[in-house]
Structure formats: C-alpha cells, structure tokens
Amino acid sequence: MAKNFIQPGHVVTVPAPASVASGALVQVGVLVGVAQFAAEPAEPVEIALEGVHELAKVSAQAWTVGQAIYISSTGLATTATAAGNVFIGVALAAAANPSPTGVVRLNGAAPAAPAA
C-alpha cells in the first residue's frame, strides 16, 4: 500500500455545520454524506459518502429509478437543479408524490465544477 494512504474514505469525519440528526444529510462545501450519529455544531461527526440510504426528500416530487438527486438548501434530497443544490447521487427506487423519503445511491462527492 502507498505510504501516503490515509483511509478508504467510505466514511469520513467532518465538523458538523449545524445540529444534525443521525441519518440526516450533512453538507460541508460540495462534500455531502449521511450522518452516522447526532452531533452539535462544530462537533466531529462521521458521514457516509457511499452506499444506499433512505433519505428525507422533498415530499411533492415523484422520482424515477436512475434520476439524479441533489441536496436542497433545506437539507432534503431533491431532483431540482436549482442554484446551490449539490449533486449527491441517483435514485435507486421510484418514489411517489407525495412521499417523505426516497432511496439514493450516494455518489461519494459532488463532481468538480467545469473549468470556465
């Protein structure tokens, strides 16, 4: 293994940007993951960057399998590509409108913005 290897990176520790509940989406810049436990602002919290998770979503949206999913400014999973929403993964199951949750395969990290 390379001498500069630190960790696999499936789960990483970040400072909680606000109070977070276990299982909630946590966003730090373009890094988005699922909180593995509750934490208060600035406390270390482990977030899963990969895997399939059932996430709180914008209720008034219907999802299809394979649809791109983003985190909204309110911390909910959404299909909306509004300014400031960060890509987090893809829907792995259809979700009805209305419904409180959806199944998402996390992408690990948002893709870098294209060069200007």
In whole angstroms, the N-to-C terminal distance is 36 Å
What is the number of beta strands?
9
Label the structural class: mainly beta
CATH class label: Mainly Beta
What does this structure look like?
The chain has no helices and nine strands. By secondary structure, it is mainly beta. The chain has a single domain, classed as Virus Head Decoration Protein, Chain: A. The model has no long low-confidence stretch (mean pLDDT 94).
How would the blueprint of this fold be written?
Blueprint: E1 11-15, E2 25-28, E3 31-35, E4 44-48, E5 52-56, E6 68-71, E7 77-78, E8 86-91, E9 101-106
Antiparallel strand pairs: 1-4, 2-3, 3-4, 5-9, 6-7, 6-8, 8-9
Protein name: DUF2190 family protein
Pfam family, one: Phage_cement_2
Salient structural properties:
four-stranded antiparallel sheet, Virus Head Decoration Protein, Chain: A, five-stranded antiparallel sheet, mainly beta, 116 residues
Task: Write a concise synopsis of the structure shown.
Helix content is 0%, strand content 36%. With 116 residues, it is mainly β.
